[in-house]
Amino acid sequence: QSVLTQPPSVSGAPGQRVTISCTGSSSNIGTGHDVHWYQHLPGTAPRLLIYGNNNRPSGIPDRFSASKSATSASLAITGLQAEDEGDYYCQSYDRRLSAVFGGGTKVTVL
Amino acid sequence: EVQLVESGGGLVEPGRSLRLSCTASGFKFGDYAMNWVRQAPGKGLEWIGFIKSAPYGGTIEYAASVKGRFIISRDDSKNIAYLQMNSVKTEDTAVYYCTDLQFYYYMDVWGKGTTVTVTS
Fold first, then answer.
1. Which residues between 12 and 41 in chain A have a beta carbon less than 8 angstroms from any beta carbon of chain B?
2. From B98, which residue of chain A is nearest by alpha-carbon distance?
3. pLDDT at A11
């Protein structure tokens, strides 16, 4: 049971928009700590996708965007592509548990 | 080029010890916190622990699942971070990743990982 809750899977057709939710609590996201997102494609190391709630590192396409509200966050992928298929994780800081990850969401491109 | 390379993984028996290394290059190692994350087979990413840089007191924090068994350290003269794994359990079987840890607790640079298998 992860401290940050993500849906196990989402799917969409090429070109569609999918969103992944990340639900936390008053001890992590709700304390104002930033939410970050990682992409983990098969056979590769995880990659930072979004940092500081809604900032993309250089090289990350603007098809990826994110937002944060009180105790939750969400990642959106627009113009879904076959190469986006993989696992996506949110991450934040919890005042009791330190760094924490969500359980991960598998994105399937239909 | 900024790079992190993990080494030291392999097969280890339950109850034994193993030390992983993370060799950094391409950035000023001593200025950055270093961090370890693992992924067990079929599971998600799990944060293990981090060690802050000397300017930030070298603070170390661990996940509850490894606290008291794993020790994180660093040698800034060699640009290496270590993960000493003691009293290993079968549930410690995973790919172990070394990352940096930025000020707002995100992980920008990742190594390719090293695999640890705990088995008798």
1. 33-34, 36, 38, 40
2. A45
3. 97
